[in-house]
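Regression test case RT-17, inverse folding.

Input:
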């Protein structure tokens, strides 16, 4: 394990030059204090957990002090936002402090969100607020614990700095970790500004740094695009299987690594609703839960367009056709696991879709249904769950089909229960839980957010004394309005 001063920096992206990013110094917050930290994320940097109790930890990860080998940069990119192209975006409130290499040779970007004004802040103030920082911290670490690819969050720092949104709030900073912060929008920026030499330089950097296996392919750029598509399809399949709604799937929020990135007005489904819109600002429902699959495909098409100077259009089109089959294969596999099924049968898709339709019409709690289905022998669990459905006859018909399907696998209850509980979380990050933790933190009590983080870090485990975090949400908790404002 390392101390805070022993981190090894290798700033590969900074070496690309001024065309790709601008040197910016973080603007410190007033009276910074540590709100919450992730020991699991610290381990990625080989940091001893005890480091978080050192005042230097807060100073460094809130931008008050810098490592001598850090090179803070604001990255430039563009992107399609709600379907319309925005020609220049960039890190308006975040800085890539540098890239740390751990003992296993992994590179981890240290990206500080809320670090102040940059050349790309446009009309913003370059700041983040406590509520959005806590929400991203909790989601990043929770998705990782669920097995969903995600950027990671090392810590949140609060302050006395006033920040003005719909109301006056307090400034905060989030230290985000990811192997890369390159987005689809990076490639779009250099494509649409006709900087094709720079586009090739970026492409070479990304392939060599993050997709070295593609260099063994006779056409490495094409191999790279296919890998990005596969990873994105698998990520979205996991979102859908676990009821995660991103909320702002703009191309500048899509990671080239196929990891969940840039958390804004996200939400996990409470009651199952395929038409659920988690973003208060998304009036047309572009990024609704059911639209996340076609929008991911749309975003990949936008990336493909930016790569046309280097990959044949016919190859890009053929690769795009792979998206839905890859998505469906991963999604079906996950949904089978959630239902306790180990083998694959052709009728499984229809069985799952029938269940989702029943859940939709009866507003069934998505997370609790699957957990309770595995709690007891199938017959007993189904008898209890049927009480929640409006159309009892239709549910009974589905339950009969499910029992017959399950019996063909001949697994005893304990083995079934263990397997299903490993696929079905007991604890999920519901918006009302995050809201209660945020309100406590805004009042100066960081205990609730730290406890919630601890519970969500072990979502599949029974945790005696924490059952209240697995309860059905109150009615008000299902109707919280979350916007992009942060």
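Golden output:
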């Amino acid at each position: 394990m390392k101390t805070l001063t022993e981190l090894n920096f290798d700033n590969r992206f900074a070496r690309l030059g001024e065309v790709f990013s601008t040197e910016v110094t973080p603007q410190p917050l007033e009276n910074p204090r540590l709100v919450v930290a992730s020991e699991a994320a610290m381990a990625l940097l080989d940091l001893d957990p005890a480091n978080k109790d050192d005042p230097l930890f807060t100073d460094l990860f809130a931008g008050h002090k810098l490592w001598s080998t850090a090179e803070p940069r604001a990255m430039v990119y563009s992107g399609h936002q709600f379907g319309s192209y925005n020609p220049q975006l960039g890190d308006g409130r975040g800085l890539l402090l540098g890239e740390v290499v751990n003992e296993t040779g992994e590179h981890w970007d240290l990206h500080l969100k809320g670090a102040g004004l940059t050349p790309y802040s446009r009309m913003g103030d370059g700041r983040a607020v406590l509520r959005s920082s806590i929400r991203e911290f909790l989601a990043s670490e929770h998705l990782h614990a669920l097995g969903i690819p995600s950027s990671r969050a090392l810590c949140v720092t609060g302050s006395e700095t006033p920040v003005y949104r719909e109301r006056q709030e307090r400034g905060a900073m989030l230290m985000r970790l990811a192997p890369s912060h390159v987005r689809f929008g990076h490639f779009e920026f250099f494509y649409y500004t006709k900087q094709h030499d720079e586009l090739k330089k970026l492409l070479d950097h990304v392939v060599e740094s993050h997709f070295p296996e593609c260099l063994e392919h006779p056409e490495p750029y094409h191999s790279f695009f296919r890998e990005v598509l596969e990873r994105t399809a698998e990520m979205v399949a996991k979102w859908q299987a676990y009821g995660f709604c991103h909320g702002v799937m703009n191309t500048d929020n899509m990671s080239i690594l196929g990891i969940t990135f840039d958390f804004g007005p996200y939400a996990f489904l409470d009651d199952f609703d395929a038409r659920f819109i988690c973003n208060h600002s998304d009036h047309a429902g572009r990024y609704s839960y059911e639209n996340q699959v076609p929008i991911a495909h749309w975003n990949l098409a936008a990336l493909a367009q930016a790569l046309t100077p280097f990959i044949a259009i016919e190859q890009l089109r053929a690769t795009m056709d792979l998206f839905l089959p890859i998505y469906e294969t991963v999604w079906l596999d996950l949904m089978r696991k959630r239902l306790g099924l180990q083998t694959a049968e052709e009728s499984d898709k229809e069985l799952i879709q029938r269940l989702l339709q029943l859940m939709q019409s009866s507003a069934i709690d998505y997370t609790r249904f699957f957990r309770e289905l595995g709690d007891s022998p199938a017959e007993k669990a189904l008898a209890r769950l049927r009480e929640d459905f409006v159309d009892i006859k239709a549910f009974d018909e589905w339950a009969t089909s499910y029992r017959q399907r399950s019996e063909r696998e001949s697994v005893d209850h304990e083995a079934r229960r263990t397997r299903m509980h490993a696929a079905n979380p007991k604890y999920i990050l519901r918006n009302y839980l995050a809201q209660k933790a945020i309100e406590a933190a805004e009042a100066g009590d960081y205990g609730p957010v730290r406890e919630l983080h601890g519970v969500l870090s072990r979502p599949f485990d029974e945790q005696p004394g924490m059952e209240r975090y697995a309860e059905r949400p109150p009615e008000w908790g299902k109707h919280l309005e979350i916007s992009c404002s942060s």
